[in-house]
Every structure is written in structure tokens, then in C-alpha cells.
């Protein structure tokens, strides 16, 4: 099941990318394994999936520890309270949900002494009123600048949650805006190469606008109980 699902998603990514003239290799598939077992993750690993994403700090860390003899890359994609930042800095390779300078400073400090910097994405709130997490676009230049000089973080790009309950049209307008901002950020900071956009429900639109990283849970592992 998981194996077939992964094959289907890879195929879908490839088809959509080619259809809009993109190189499918530019797009990384993250398997969102929240609420899924180590056994299920191992099934995905057995067919070559190496990138996993978790939303809850403790749950993620227990899986990271149990799977520590496998070479996997772990992304934190949940909302992060500053009292848990130390654990994310210590165990994860990426954090997609940096939304304040305060959090960035903490992660930077807590990452020091580790061999590699923490890869970070700034979370953008593209639907403004409905979502609580993420910064407004107008706050991006200052936060990006501040993060770019922190030695233990590496600014890789931006992330957004899907806009739900709205027309495709409104979603596409917002996604195009994200793509435009991503391009500007890339032109300013050489370390920027990642637009984390797209989940099981909006993977096609995300790839069409230029997403380089899709975060897929349900379509790989099935619904979460
Ligand atoms: C759960 C989650 C996903 C995956 O959503 P699916 O609809 O299961 O593919 C992606 N991104 C974030 C931030 C999530 O919390």
C-alpha cells in the first residue's frame, strides 16, 4: 500500500513537472509521518524514501531515535513553541516553521556545537486572517536578513500551508505570490533554494507555480485516525 502510494506520487510529481516544463528532480518529496508508526516509516524507507517530516516534537524525536541507524533526513513542520526549540535544534535537520527572530535566535544558539547548521524555512501566512501561524509577507525582508547572518542556521527558503476552503483561483493567486517572493529571496541570498509548498490535496497547483518541496502525508500513509 505505502509502496504503491509512493510510486503513484512520484509518478504524479514527474508528470506534473514535465507538463509545465520543469525538471522533476528539482522537487523533493517529504513523507509526512505524523501519527504514523515506525513500522510504517520503515515500509517507506524500504522503497527508497529518505526524507520525513514530523509535526510534534516528542513524537518526532522518539521516531528519530528508534530509526537512528538508518540514514534519514528529518524535517520539523509543526508549530514550534520556543520552550521546545532546543529539541528541534538538537534532533532535526530542518525546521520549516520559523516565524520570529526570537525563535531564530534560540535555534541558532541551541544548534551551536553541532557539526551542521540547521536548515530553516520561514513560514509565511498567505491566507492572512484565517491562520495564526506564519509571518506576513511584509515582515519577510527583515526576518530573512536577520537569519542570514546567524552562523548556526542556514536560510533555505520559505514555507506555507495550503489555503483551504477557497476557490482554486484564490489559491493560485496566493501561490503565485509565494513563488514570486521565493524568486526574490533566491536572488538576494545564495543559500535559498527551497519553496516548501503543496500537500496531498494541492500538490499539482504547488508544482505548477514552482514548489521545490512537497509535504505529503495522507496520500502516502492513508488517513490519520
Ligand atoms: C499534516 C501536514 C502535511 C501533510 O498533509 P496531508 O494532507 O496529509 O498530505 C503537510 N504540511 C503540514 C505543515 C502538515 O501539518
From TrEMBL:
Cofactors demanded by this protein: pyridoxal 5'-phosphate
GO MF annotation terms: pyridoxal phosphate binding
Keyword Ribonucleoprotein: no
InterPro entries given in the database record: Ala_racemase_N, PLP-binding_barrel, PyrdxlP_homeostasis
Oligomeric and partner information: Monomer.
Role noted for this protein: Pyridoxal 5'-phosphate (PLP)-binding protein, which is involved in PLP homeostasis.
Stored HAMAP family: PLP_homeostasis
Protein name listed in UniProt: Pyridoxal phosphate homeostasis protein
Species per Swiss-Prot/TrEMBL record: Candidatus Erwinia haradaeae
Gene it is expressed from: yggS
